[in-house]
Task: structure prediction
Amino acid sequence: MIRIADVTKSFGENKALSEVSLDIFDEELFVLIGPDGAGKSTLFRILVTLLLPDKGHVLIKELDVVKDFWKIRTVVGYMPGTFSLYPDLTVEENLAFYARIFGTSLQKNYPLIREVYEQIEPFKNRAAGKLSGGMKQKLALSCALIHRPEVLVLDEPTTGVDAASRKEFWQMLKKIQQEGITVIVSTAYMDEASRGDRTCFLHKGELLKAGTPEEIRESYPFPLYACRSKNNFALLKALRNEPSTALAMLYGKTIHYSPARKDFSVGTFLSDLERTGNYGPIEYRKTTPSMEDSFAFLSKQ
Result:
């Protein structure tokens, strides 16, 4: 288990993390989601012993990230958000280098990385800096796995990657998890939030909610409606200006809207708006909250 307790980290006057507490279970695929600047990378760098927390503590497999940092580096694999391998070394040379650092070899742990490595093996003599984005991603993942870590930490690995490659990457992560490895992934893509066993939402350095995707969706506290008119932007502005509104945001071709009171008459309210505003007919129907709805609501609290 990974136990994060009251972790706080500041850079000057900017508080990147504020008393974050979280448990991540063994062999779990855990997703950390939040916008840029939420504190995801800071938390990950503390997990992998690259930063010291100002306050609080982190235990990974009963090892303290401050006192036992050398031991932790042997059980954790880390793939940072930016490509950080040696661009002048070939694919094969990068893998050999990282294997030697951890006292192992490509051959010893080849079964674990085989599915990933087979896709880049045809380019094993190419300099890493000349690989495509998707191939760089696979090489970085192979290097992070080369010593067969117990915990794999991936900082926004799908950023800037096309949709097909993103889907393929998540399939690979599921297979890595099945090897008994705890996988922790951060992302800014809301559609990836439900791909893990559990998810947590980080916003402005604070952890707002953690749970299974189902638990997070079911925690949405108000009725939710999908609304549509001929002038959605004007309607959105009107809904946001209404004091009784708990949530109003664009969602595809509709507006997801929630009143802050469960006894609120949505039909009457929207009929009044339709008569007094330049929206045309306003269609609405009750809908099921999504992860995005839950996180949007939480971030406004």
